[in-house]
Design a protein that fits this description.
- Helices cover 37% and strands 18% of the residues.
- By secondary structure, it is an alpha/beta fold.
- It folds into 2 domains: 259 residues, Rossmann fold (3-Layer(aba) Sandwich); 139 residues, Toll/interleukin-1 receptor homology (TIR) domain (Rossmann fold).
- The strands form 5 sheets. A 6-stranded mixed sheet has the order 2-1-5-9-10-13, sandwiched between helices. A 5-stranded parallel sheet has the order 15-14-16-17-18, with helices on both faces.
- The two termini are 34 Å apart.
């Protein structure tokens, strides 16, 4: 079952800026809703007075200073801990600033002078990099970081980041407003309302949530006589507009599910077409045990059908050839090694273990961060310790093959 994680940050009492009134309450209420109503598996809260966070066998201060938040993000996500079917949300309420074309979130102790921002505020680029390293396939950022105070002209433009869904509290050139009568910023008040709507008017998809936020924030600001404020969304591709982001909490309509499936199918077809254009330039080696041959043969047929040059011993080794030599040469010449795992193969001694060892030796020669070894579980089985540092794919799941193709696509983007 997919996991849902969230990080909520809210700052009122800035050390070097005029304080805000509602940012901490925004983060606290968002945290409570995600934890208690949406039943997120893991939630983290960083505010002016939040309690310490017990995580990674360590106690972390939770006051969102530059050092505290940056250090926690770096340690928490230094290796993948979530999978492509999982979701990770990041909510920020406070000040933001744009300096020399880069967007920054101002933290409790940030110095707002342009010359000091880079050394005391946390860049959105750094935050998104850490979130992507989590391994989660669905990352959503709700950024209320252009809060209005009379003497402040702070704000961000919120540049899109690949793989992230951004929903900002206002459009470039606008400000976000706190409504003291509601004890919330108008954006967060509307967001919490939208997330709780059920029935046909629900906000189960990114597209509907974005539209409803625009309408509701406009209504709230008119009611409380605040200037225009227009939330806006930046996404990596049109398909993310139809992402059903909380199916367990917000019941999607039948139409939502059909549209989501159609666009997911289109994305899958687009990936398949891109591989077919390579004409066999991407070379894959299928490492497997003989007992898994039927399942691996099916995988081989799928790969070659979309233009990938997959290497399978029974198809590539000719009669009379030295099979050990041919296998070693194929491993060495491959762009990616897919290590097929089953309950039988992981517990069996023999040549497949030698292939894994040889592949690991070659992997050591690759630049850090390169996708080269992909453990692929053919069934629900354990992963050998020496492969546990690599994120694996479950080919027995409905979208397993699609996730494998996304890894291959990521390799292509960085290597071809």
């Amino acid at each position: 079952m997919a996991k849902n994680w969230a990080i909520c940050v809210g700052i009122n009492q800035y050390h070097f800026l005029q304080g805000l009134t509602c940012a901490v309450n925004d983060a606290e209420k968002m945290h409570v809703w995600l934890k208690e109503m949406a039943k997120f598996d893991q939630t983290y809260l960083f505010t002016d007075q939040s309690p310490p966070i017990e995580d990674l066998s360590e106690s972390f201060p939770s006051q969102p200073t530059f050092t505290t938040l940056r250090r926690w993000l770096r340690k928490r996500f230094e290796r993948p801990i979530l999978s492509l079917s999982d979701s990770l949300w990041f909510f920020f309420s406070g000040y933001g600033v744009r300096v020399q074309g880069k967007d920054y979130l101002l933290l409790l102790d940030s110095d707002p002078y342009p010359e000091e921002v880079n050394n005391s505020a946390i860049s959105l680029a750094f935050v998104t990099e850490q979130l992507r390293q989590s391994g989660a396939g669905n990352i959503m950022m709700f950024v209320d970081a252009c809060r209005h105070k009379d003497e402040s002209d702070l704000g961000i433009e919120l540049q899109p980041e690949q793989g992230i869904i951004f929903i900002a509290s206002c459009s470039p050139g606008e400000k976000s407003y706190e409504i003291e009568a509601l004890n919330h910023g108008s954006f967060t008040y509307a967001l919490l309302e939208c997330l709780q709507i059920q029935g046909k008017q629900n906000c189960a998809t990114v597209e509907r949530l974005s539209k409803r936020l625009k309408d509701r924030v406009a209504e709230i600001n008119r009611e409380y006589k605040k200037p225009k404020q227009t939330p806006y969304t930046r996404i990596e591709s049109e398909t993310k507009n139809y992402l059903i982001f909380l199916p367990e909490r917000i019941q999607p309509t039948l139409n939502d599910m059909l549209v989501s499936r159609i666009f997911n199918k289109q994305e899958f077809n687009k990936m398949s077409e891109s591989f077919s254009l390579l004409n066999g330039q991407l070379k894959l080696f299928l490492c497997h045990g003989s007992e898994d041959k039927p399942a691996v043969r099916q995988l081989y047929n799928k790969l070659i059908s979309i233009g990938i040059d997959a290497w399978l011993d029974e198809e590539k080794i000719l009669p009379g050839q030295d099979w050990q030599y041919e296998i070693s040469k194929a491993v060495r010449n491959s762009d990616i090694i897919i290590i097929c795992l089953s309950s039988t193969s992981v517990n069996k001694t023999g040549y497949v273990q030698k292939e894994i060892k040889y592949a690991l030796d070659i992997a050591e020669e690759k630049p850090e961060g390169t996708i080269f070894l992909i453990p692929a579980r053919l069934e629900n089985c354990s992963v050998p310790d020496r492969l546990s540092g690599k994120q694996w794919v479950n080919l027995f799941e409905e979208k397993g093959f699609e996730r494998l193709l996304k890894s291959l696509e990521a390799y292509l983007k960085s290597n071809l």
